[in-house]
Design a protein that fits this description.
By secondary structure, this protein is an alpha/beta fold. The chain has eleven helices and 17 strands. It has a domain of about 240 residues: NAD(P)-binding Rossmann-like Domain (Rossmann fold, 3-Layer(aba) Sandwich). A seven-stranded parallel sheet has the order 4-3-2-5-6-7-15, with helices on both faces. The protein has a two-stranded antiparallel sheet with strand order 1-12. A two-stranded parallel ribbon has the order 8-11. Helix 1 packs parallel to helix 2 and helix 3 runs parallel beside helix 5.
Length: about 350
């Protein structure tokens, strides 16, 4: 593994107004000496833009943060960002997210997740980046029955277009690593949650509906299990991985051995969805978002599985612990407590 010193470097973070991207940018700016962060985001209206702007407002207080509004599908703009800023490290977190949305809006996934990522790879090809780190997803494991999910498992059967685009990102990155000797690392994230998260995520949507007195639907009759991972744990993992690029080497054929790696980042402890919503309700009451006498039982409905969903996600993080000495550890109650407190402050 090749050590990458981030001090005094220029780092490009795509999706910088997004949930994980904004937390990553703030972490880098707060902890790495003299780092320069270029944030890139198209600020689309997939969810409330006010939330994205509030994240950017937090980053605007840093003199060494520079924001560019643009779309990754615009190849000329991506090229211009690289030509003008010469980033040493690129973290690609921009993507059209969501499994269910991909059923009704497939074009958005092709534009952002495939064309956009291809444009990033092309730009990295023509600039000597030390490390490309990009977001994949636990959704690539599809309907795999073996748990926990390992990066050694076959992932050839995606059950959603979103998952298929993320698997495609891994294949494209591998090809570019092989052809052009680009050190790249893919990170398969497992159900990320936390303050200022995405409103389309279950915990956020549940909160909105409970507050409005509506009924929440709990899929697979509550028997789904998710490896919920707190956003700060995800970001800590990203930062450690950014600083350890796969080694460049030459094979017997005289061509590069792909400097390519894949890791899971998950809590390694799947939670039952019914337990999850019970803890969420308790923390929303504790934070004063819901009244203490809230009748939770009257506001939940157990329903069948939805198309594109999987019954369980569960990360094998052995490789992350082996190579970086890191394992996410924030408990679900602690993470949901932070979310509930943030929700009250932001919305009430």
């Amino acid at each position: 593994m090749n050590r990458v010193d981030l001090s005094e470097k220029t780092v490009l973070v795509t999706g910088a107004a997004g949930f994980i991207g904004s937390v990553l940018a703030e972490h880098l700016l707060s902890s790495i000496p003299s780092i320069r962060v270029i944030g890139f985001d198209n600020l689309n209206e997939y969810y409330d833009v006010r939330l994205k702007n509030s994240r950017l407002d937090r980053l605007a207080r840093f003199d060494n943060f520079f924001f560019v509004k643009g779309d990754l599908a615009d190849k000329g703009m991506v090229k211009r960002i690289f030509d003008e800023n010469h980033p040493s490290v690129v973290v690609n977190l921009a993507a059209q997210a969501g499994v269910r949305y991909s059923i009704t809006n497939p074009d958005a996934y092709i534009s952002s997740n495939l064309i956009g990522f291809f444009n990033v790879l092309e730009a990295c090809r023509h600039h000597s980046v030390e490390h490309l780190v990009y977001a994949s997803s636990s959704s690539v494991y599809g309907g795999n029955k073996k748990v926990p999910f390992s990066t050694e498992d076959k992932v050839d059967n995606p059950v959603s277009l979103y998952a298929a685009t993320k698997k495609s990102n891994e294949l494209l990155a591998h090809a570019y690593s092989k052809l052009y000797d680009i050190p790249s690392t893919g990170l398969r994230f497992f159900t990320v949650y936390g303050p200022a998260g995405r409103p389309d995520m279950a915990y956020f949507g549940f909160t909105n509906k409970l507050l409005a007195g509506e009924t929440i639907k709990i899929f697979n009759y509550g028997h789904c299990q998710r490896d919920f991972t707190y956003v700060d744990d995800i970001v800590e993992g990203i930062v450690r991985v950014m600083q350890g690029a796969p080694d460049r080497a030459t094979g017997e054929d005289g061509l590069p051995i792909p400097p390519y790696a894949l890791y899971n980042i998950g809590n390694g402890h799947p939670e039952n969805l019914l337990d999850f919503v019970t803890i969420l309700q308790e923390e929303l009451i504790r934070a004063g978002v819901l009244p203490s006498n809230y009748d939770f039982e009257a506001h939940k409905e157990l329903v069948p599985m939805q198309p594109g969903d999987v019954p369980i996600t569960y990360a094998d993080t052995t490789a992350l612990k082996r190579d970086f000495g890191y394992q996410p550890s924030t408990s679900l109650r602690e993470g949901l407590r932070h979310f509930a407190e943030w929700y009250r402050m932001f919305y009430m």
